[in-house]
UniProtKB/TrEMBL annotation:
GO terms for biological process: negative regulation of DNA-templated transcription; protein complex oligomerization. This is Phage repressor protein. Residues 90-185 form the Bacteriophage CI repressor C-terminal domain. InterPro entries: Lambda_DNA-bd_dom_sf, Phage_CI_C, Phage_CI_N. It comes from the Bacteria.
Length: 191
């Protein structure tokens, strides 16, 4: 590993780890001038002290910050404030999830004990979802319906049956017939 080079990639990964949109925001956070960061970026000079600080504050893998190699792409990054979590935002495009951005969320917006795995943006709302659920309850769920990802309201019925509802239609089936991906833990409506 050559730590003389790799500054550009490391700086870009730090911007992503913190959830910033610009390198200027990274400068402000680190307390360094724009010209200092620009020099390291242009010369591809590795910013070891910044990378270590970023790893400690965000809990992102040091290996990923240094090399860009990660066992899995980081979808959840914790900020230096333990109440904030950075998650990916997806849109459902042509019945598939498409990553569009990142979102910083205060965990106080969801019930205690709930986790936030990612968010889905629709035309009028932003929905926070948890992939780590254990019990099917009434509510909004992300399901794979015949190969298409969709958000649907699910209502539990007797005998392990459920009613699956959207704006246009509804149907009933057994709960184990559904391919459920995640449950909605909070919905924010755009005003």
């Amino acid at each position: 590993m050559n730590l003389e080079k790799g500054g550009r990639g490391a700086i870009e990964r730090m911007v992503e780890a913190y959830g910033f949109k610009t390198r200027q925001a990274l400068c402000d956070h680190l307390g360094v001038s724009k010209s200092t960061l620009a020099t390291r970026y242009m010369r591809d000079s590795f910013p070891a002290e910044w990378v270590i600080q970023c790893a400690l504050e965000t809990k992102v893998s040091l290996n990923w910050l240094v090399s860009g190699v990660h066992a899995e792409e980081p979808t959840k990054v914790y900020s230096q404030n333990e109440n904030l979590i950075i998650v990916d935002i997806f849109k459902i495009t042509k019945s598939e999830l498409t990553k569009v951005d990142k979102l910083t969320v205060d965990k106080k917006f969801v019930a205690e004990g709930e986790k936030i795995s990612f968010a889905i943006e629709s035309h009028d709302s932003l929905i926070l979802l948890n992939q780590e659920w254990s019990v099917l309850v009434d509510g909004i769920w992300l399901i794979n319906l015949d190969g298409e990802m969709t958000l649907r309201k699910i209502i539990k019925l007797p005998n392990k049956r459920v009613r699956v509802v959207n704006n246009d239609s509804e149907f009933e089936c057994y709960a184990d017939e559904l391919n459920i991906s995640a449950k909605a833990v909070a919905t924010f409506i755009r005003g």
